[in-house]
Amino acid sequence: MSDTKDHYDDEAIQSLPESVKLSWGIIKPSRRGPKGELSIPKIVDTAVAIADQDGLSAVSMSRVAGALGFTTMSLYRYITSKEDLLLLMQDRVCPPPPEAEPDSGTGASKKHWRAEMQDYVQFCIKVFRDHPWFADIPIRSVPMMPGNLRIIDWMLRIMRGFPVNDFEKMSFVLLISSYARACGMIARDMDLVIKAGDSFSTFSGLSYTAALKQLITESNFPDLQPIVMSGAYTGEVESPIGDDLAFGLERILDGIEQYLEVRRQM
Known about the structure:
The protein is mostly helical and 266 residues long. It has 13 helices and no strands.
């Protein structure tokens, strides 16, 4: 949790959701109950460990309290609802982004922005794979918690020298983050399938290639059928473009690069 002031008088700050205020340390838990033995980070870390092991459905205030050796009511003195706990868990597992490699005099990174955005996507994918429950928590608003905001700040740092306005930058953040989320969920799902005992061939459909070639006919699927027959659909033959998701990211970055070139010429 982020260090901040003990309290705020500003009405706008107080209007923030409870979970956001907890994440910033704006509100403090009740003084009642065990002193020094419980804390918000300890509660959240315990909930994360349960979710990592048994899934998000296993997380409850009573389960977390039991794992810590306290009553459920003790937890409510720190975090007032399970919904707030889930959001705090999500923010907790956002690791700090890597520090920039400053270029003398500019403060920008020495690394090319394309490589930095590729790192960003891989960073996000790892969060989904390390914590498979992460994407099971619905998005309810723009990010407002410190962990998530540090990740956005990283993307904006990559774009520090771009000849674009703030709205364009935020649109690029949404574009890259959405692709990273989609890739992360696919990687997460593949991990879960393999963990459950199936193979990569099952996940990719390779094991069912022969059956699909019979079912997907030219009359019913005129454009898909030749792709299935060529082996491209299930990876029956080696792809000349390599990894599909990496290929897709490269095309997105091509589009951004072309857009930047147009903006520089304006």
